[in-house]
Design goal:
By secondary structure, the chain is mainly β. It contains seven helices and 38 strands. The longest helix has 11 residues. The N terminus and C terminus are likely disordered.
Length: 559
């Protein structure tokens, strides 16, 4: 089914756009403007199953004082908040007041660039202070992910660092590194840290253990004369950490994500750091290299089993679960190192010829057999469409670590030609169907699925809302799109007044107690809402006044 276009495409000169243009794509790597104060949009069609806020961050300022970051990953982080209420969406955007950002503001220029540096290059350090750029400030630019905690009104911002940054949901301010109860003087070093070792990296994707309410599994690379990966748990109610296992590593391995099922932690050992990696060069990007050492599986007792298969690289995992014969992991695989200049250097992302080069990616199902005739072996199945790339996976969190049918994600090369031809994908593995949301010259980011909590047992795995931010290249601003998880029809599209650059991963935080009452009253009785709690003042905008768009394409294809 192809829906008719609702708007004419045009260029500033009045003619039709060239077929090979990716109009507006460069805005993903163009600095955003100043903070956006809380602005509310009336959305009469929206009736979320739970009131709360969706937070998603990313780099939003890529230059300062005449210096431009060469990699957009070095950009200064900004958090975006979308409050979902009955008949209303409120948007706020605020730069993270991290030491990384504050130090640059103090200098009037970047203090350094962690991934690639700047253009032009920063002044050299004086002989009296040869390590002036190694301040440690860059380690708190944690715009990648958000982990909810039991702390009232507060979560933790994450990146692939052992440092967790405190984040206040209401003010959207950051308040320094989180000090763990077992962290000693620094508040970071756990008591189970091996002697003569130091924490080097973590993962931006801790995973909640299925069947638990508050137990999250995380990893930390410990480096010394030998390297170990500490697999540990965080109880987000008590904020206690507990070691599950110290897994020996063959070098400084890197885990952006990993898998967790009811009884196992699955660690694809495929990427390491140090030296001049496959990408070459002297930057952090150039240090990523092939570190293939099989798939390490850790059970609840800390025992490790290694499964061998053909090497692959990965960035994100869709889901990991157990069946009668073993462990199943669904993830996006790469034939080449994914963290490379090709993917992280801004100039190469802006070069259409370069970004349209296929990188040999595939969505795969990897089955590690623990029982049966194939015990100890690995079998693999392709889930993706050849020639296309899918990543930024999201599933219904009620089936994390359990057998499931549906994952959502961002698809590139949607037209089988252009990398920037993008879509939001719903793949029902069980029914072998694919459903798409796509608009020409619109570039969506990671979707988030909010299940319908009005029923004790979900009516279906896709019973809920799917929402995401999408950059409209024609309008040169971003939209907040909310779809019906089942039908993939648009419930509402909020036309934001600004463009939002590249985004990473989002998290929905439900409101509680008085916040729910206040949110409900703000729609119909703002006078009473003010009596419940101090209310941020904002102008309501009717999202229906922003008519147009370019016609979503809704397609249901057999796999």
């Amino acid at each position: 089914l192809v829906l008719p276009s609702l708007a004419l495409l045009s260029t500033p000169g009045g003619g039709a756009p060239l077929a090979d243009q990716d109009i507006g794509y460069e805005l993903l790597f163009t600095s955003a403007g100043p903070d956006v104060q809380r602005t509310c949009f009336r959305t009469p069609e929206l009736h979320p199953p739970t009131s709360g806020a969706f937070f998603i961050g990313g780099p939003a300022k890529f230059d300062m004082g005449g210096y431009q970051f060469q990699s957009f990953f070095d950009g200064y982080g900004r958090m975006n908040r979308f409050e979902l209420q009955d008949g209303k969406v409120c948007f706020t955007a605020k730069y993270m007041n991290t030491s990384y950002y504050k130090e640059a503001e103090l200098l009037g220029r970047p203090a350094g660039g962690m991934f690639m540096g700047t253009e032009p290059k920063l002044p050299p350090c004086p002989l009296t202070h040869p390590f002036c750029k190694l301040t440690g400030a860059e380690s708190d630019n944690n715009w990648v992910n958000l982990m909810p905690t039991g702390e009232p009104g507060e979560g933790l911002l994450l990146t692939d660092s052992p440092i967790f940054v405190r984040f206040d949901y209401e003010s959207m301010g950051t308040f320094g590194n989180y000090k763990w109860k077992d962290g000693g003087v620094s508040g970071m070093l756990p008591k189970w840290l091996k002697a003569f070792h130091a924490p080097a990296t973590g993962s931006a994707h801790p995973v909640r253990r299925p069947g638990t309410e508050s137990t999250w599994v995380e990893v930390m690379l410990e480096v010394g004369f030998s390297q170990y990966l500490a697999v540990y748990t965080i109880d987000t109610k008590t904020m206690d950490r507990a070691l599950l296992a110290h897994v020996p590593m063959k070098g400084p391995m890197y885990f952006h994500s990993f898998g967790v099922s009811e009884n196992y932690v699955v660690l694809p050992c495929n990427l390491k750091m140090g030296g001049n990696g496959s990408a070459g060069g002297n930057s952090i990007i150039g240090a990523f290299g092939d570190g293939w050492d099989g798939i390490h599986v850790v059970d609840r007792n800390g025992n490790v089993q290694v499964f061998e298969t053909d090497r692959f690289f990965h960035v994100h995992v869709a889901n990991t679960f157990e069946n009668d014969t073993g462990i199943v992991m669904d993830l996006g695989t790469f034939q080449k190192v994914p963290f490379s200049y090709h993917t992280l250097e801004t100039a190469l992302n802006l070069n259409k010829t370069e970004r349209d080069v296929h990188q040999g990616t595939m969505t795969e199902r990897i089955h590690m057999h623990l029982a049966g005739p194939r015990k100890g072996q690995v079998t693999r199945e392709h889930l993706g469409m050849p020639g296309r790339q899918t990543d930024f996976f999201k599933i219904n969190h009620q089936v994390w670590g359990l057998p499931y049918c549906i994952y959502y994600g961002v698809e590139w090369f949607h037209n089988d030609k252009d990398y920037a031809s993008m879509a939001i994908l719903k793949h029902n593995i069980c029914q072998r169907t694919r459903t798409y949301w796509s608009k020409r010259y619109v570039y969506p980011t990671e979707p988030y699925f909010l299940p319908n909590s009005k029923h004790e047992t979900p009516l279906a795995e896709d019973d809920g809302l799917l929402f995401f931010v999408a950059l409209d290249g024609i309008r040169k601003a971003s939209d907040f799109v909310i779809l019906d998880g089942k039908t993939f029809q648009e419930i509402t599209v909020v036309n934001l007044p600004v463009h939002i650059p590249f985004l990473a991963h989002g998290q929905f935080v439900p409101k509680a107690g008085a916040e729910v009452v206040k949110a409900t009253l703000e729609v119909d009785r703002p006078d009473l809402a003010a009596a419940v709690a101090p209310s941020s003042q904002s102008d309501d905008v009717d999202s229906r006044n922003f008519a147009g768009g370019m016609g979503a394409r809704l397609a249901l294809d057999p796999q």
